[in-house]
Specification:
heterodimer, A: mainly beta, about 45% strand, B: mainly beta, 7-stranded mixed sheet, 4-stranded antiparallel sheet, globular
Chain lengths: ~110, ~120
Amino acid sequence: DAKTTQPPSMDCAEGRAANLPCNHSTISGNEYVYWYRQIHSQGPQYIIHGLKNNETNEMASLIITEDRKSSTLILPHATLRDTAVYYCIVREGRGNKLVFGAGTILRVKS
Amino acid sequence: GAVVSQHPSRVICKSGTSVKIECRSLDFQATTMFWYRQFPKKSLMLMATSNEGSKATYEQGVEKDKFLINHASLTLSTLTVTSAHPEDSSFYICSALLGTSDNEQFFGPGTRLTVL
């Protein structure tokens, strides 16, 4: 079973930052937070992951709270092509299977 | 980045026939691949973990005799849907594990199966 809770949908204006929240209150000390997204009828795409510290890459930033019970994925300047389902997943270690929850449908509007 | 392909991208078959879907890691070797199924407007559900040279590990509720998985080489895993029925119509997605990267799992583009 998925160990995360996400809002079912969110809207964001094009060019603005999209902030996608995720609750993972039962996360254990050795579990990472991963974010993937799935554009309609395509395979999921990796975005970013983290353990304790905030992380940033060319796609997004990941902010993890100090108690690690929640996190926020930030797309700094959303475009129409960022419209997708965003999945927040917690996973122990490396190489273990990913369990997908329902995700958040992000709609970026012009 | 690592690329995973699937073939075919779409397949339509008659009820009772078998369909084989291929998953290939194009530029890396993958000892482990995963197979997922996704119904319309639903999330991905893990079906099985495929390990090169050994039997696949199936998730609870997935019939191993119906969904045959063969991971014969480090770059190829196949999923065969045997005696397909309309309820098997779905989007099948594979992923491959790249052991040297924190990112690790790279997903294929998916195969749309329609059983008439």
